[in-house]
Amino acid sequence: MIAFRKTRMAASLAGVMAIFATPVFAQAGATDLFSYRAGATFVEFPSGAELSQMESTPLNLLDESTSTDWTGDGGRAVFVLELAEETELSRIAFDTAGLNRDQKAPRGFTVELSNTSADAGFEEVLSGNLKMATNNQSFPFKPEERPTGRWVRLTILGNHGDDYSGFTGFHGYGRATTSGATLPDMTGNYDGASGWGWVHMTQNGNRVSGCYEYQRGQFTGTINGRVLNLTMVDTDSNGARTTNQGLFQLTPDGRGIRGLVRGLDRASRDSYAAFYSARKVSRNPGGC
Predict the structure, then answer these.
(1) Where are the domains of the chain?
(2) CATH classification of 2-176, choosing from 3.40.50.1240, 2.60.120.460, 2.60.120.260, 3.40.50.1820?
(3) pTM for the full model?
(4) Using CA atoms, how far apart are residues 65 and 76, in angstroms rounded to an integer?
(5) Residues of the chain with confidence (pLDDT) below 50
(6) Is 47 exposed, middle or buried (CB count within 10 Å of its CB: 0-12, 13-18, 19+)?
(7) What is the fold of 188-282?
(8) First CA to last CA across the chain, in angstroms?
(9) How many Cα neighbours within 13 Å face the side chain of 276?
(10) How far apart are CA 176 and CA 268, in angstroms?
C-alpha cells in the first residue's frame, strides 16, 4: 500500500521519583531508540487511527521529524511501543510544536515500561504535564534510577482544550541491554498490489537489492537490526529519476514489510511523505 501525506510523552519511578517535574531541553546527538529508524514501532494505538494515513498516522511520532504529527480525538489516548531491544532509558522527550492548533498538545501523561509483553507487566516510570508549542521537552532519569523495558505504554490524559489531540514527537534515549534484533531472509517476491506493484528482493549478507513495478523502481539497501534501509530510484515515463529513502520493518504477522518513504531533495527530506507495504508471496525473487 502506498499512502501519501496530505498535510503536513518529572518523573515518577516506581513510586520513588516525584510525580511532576519541570522538563529540560533535550541534548542533541543521541540515538533516538523510540524512532522507526532504530526499529521501534507501535503495537497498539488509539482506535480509529490508521498507520497508512500519513496526515495523522501514529508513526509520525517516531519519524524524527518535528513537522509531522499524530492527530486523534481529544481526551484519553493509549499507545504501546515495542522497542527493537530491551532498553535502559536515561530520558524521554516530547515535541508539541508545529501543530495547526497549539491547544491540541497533550497535557497530562503517564509512561509505563514492561519486560513481559505488550499487554502485561507494566510499571509506571514517568508522569507529568507537557507545554504547548514546545519541542525537546525532556524528562531525565537519575543514573541510579533508570528504568529498563522492551515495551513502552504512553497514556495521554487530556490536552490543552481542543476537541482533538496531537503532537509531533515521542523520543527515548539510553542504551540497549540486548542485541538480538534481526530480520529473517528477505529474499522473495512481494505483492504490493495497492500501489507499489510487484517487489522483487534479493538478500546477500546484510545487503539487499531489487526492483518494483511502480515507476520502474530500483533499490539497494542494508539490514540494520530489524530495519531495512533502502535507497529507491524511480524513473518516470520521460526518463526523469527521483531518489527516495525508505525505512521498512516486518508486518506484525511476519509475512510482509511496511515502511515510511521520503524524497531526498531539499523540499522533501525533512519528513516522510508515503507509507508503503507489500506481502511476501514467494521465496523466489523473480525480476522486473
Answers:
(1) 2-176, 188-282
(2) 2.60.120.260
(3) 0.90
(4) 24
(5) 6-28
(6) exposed
(7) Lipocalin (2.40.128)
(8) 19
(9) 27
(10) 31
